[in-house]
Fold Gliding motility-associated C-terminal domain-containing protein.
Amino acid sequence: TVQDTTAPVLTSTLDAVINVNCDAIPNMPVVTFSDACSSASDITITSTETPSEVSEDGSYTIIRTWTASDSCNNQSTVSQTVNVTISNYFRTIVKDSVCSVNQGLIIDIADEINTQYPGVVSSNGTYTDVSNSGALNESTGEFTPLNLADGDYIIRYENNDPECPRIVEITLKVRRDACTVLDCVTLVVHNAFSPDGDGINENFIIDNITDPCYVENKVEIYNRWGVLVFEVQNYNNVDRVFKGYSNGRTTVNESSGLPAGTYFYVLKYKTIEGNYSSETGHLYLGRSN
């Protein structure tokens, strides 16, 4: 009895090594073998394709192997190495300074990337708040710089493309000095209140006075004769607030409530641009008894 110990022989043309860009990786080729023990139709061919991790320079390797087995249990294996280059694997963006007090400012990271690097953003990409700012919605890729301290904040985007993975890091320069008065919310003065102890409308309220645009402020209240009856720095609607009492700089008794009537307020504040501004108006103080 003659025993066949010759393994199948590759009959296809196969390059042992090929070098390609990630967007031009050829499909795994179909190969053929010949064999002395079996006809071509009786040869079993199994194949595998194993990619490596992407290196820092934006390249990786795919190892393709084909194993042919004949009916006499002889095997042969051939392989192909695919060296893959990812052009522009890692990119950076530095965005112009953005304001930290604009309540309506939301930065769409995908839009920023698409503007400079079209085609990089994918439907299954991921966002990472590298700086741990807490300002990034990692699900939507939206960055909200409101009330962040001045600084540079880095967001990392990975498109997670299996063949052409790419990374973009965007640096967002958050600066208070990038703000203008147009970035600030508007002050709203409620010019009537009734400090009568019912828990409703008890204090003189100025909406948005605690916004970063207005934290350096001063409020003065005058009676109808122009006498100063109340003043406070850094009004905040809570403990630095006009409750209808004089704070003792006039002949009005500090512990007794001011009488009902019309008063005059002066609100002074430093703008986000470093200038000083003021608003004035009438204020009605009502009492039920």
